[in-house]
Amino acid sequence: MIRKFILPAVLMSALAAPAFASDYGSSGSVELNEANRAKINSMLTEQGYEVAKIKLEDGKYEAYARKDGERYEIYLDAGFKIMKIERDD
After folding, report:
1. Which region is the signal sequence (predicted)?
2. Model pTM greater than 0.90?
3. Which pLDDT tens digit goes with each residue over 24-78?
C-alpha cells in the first residue's frame, strides 16, 4: 500500500526539482530601464570609464566603455556587480 504513494511522490518531486532550481539564487528580474541604465553609468563613470552603450544580453548587463584610450566590454549581473571586464580590440 505504501509503495503506491511513494513512487508517485518521488516522481513528482523529481519532475518539479528543475523548475525550482532555475530560480534558486536569482536576485530578481533583470530589466534595462532608465534607472538601471543611470546606475550602471554612474558606477562606471566613478571608476573612470566613459560609457558609450549599455544593453541587456542573456539576462546580464553589458556596457561598452572607454578608459585611458582603450575600449572595454563590461559585464554586470542583476545586482550590478561587475562579473567580467574584457578589452575590446
Report:
1. 1-21
2. no
3. 334 457 899 999 999 999 999 999 999 999 999 989 999 999 999 999 999 999 9
CB atoms within 10 A of CB 15: 9
Per-residue pLDDT reduced to its tens digit, 2-35: 555 554 554 455 544 444 333 333 445 789 999 9
Q: Which CATH class is domain 27-88?
A: alpha beta
Query: Mapped to the 3 state alphabet, what secondary structure does the chain carry?
Result: CHHHHHHHHHHHHHHHHHHHHCCCCCCCCCCCCHHHHHHHHHHHHHCCCEEEEEEEECCEEEEEEEECCEEEEEEECCCCCEEEEEEEC
Measured in degrees and rounded to the nearest 5, phi and psi for residue 4 equal -65, -30
Going from N- to C-terminal start, the domains of the chain cover: 27-88
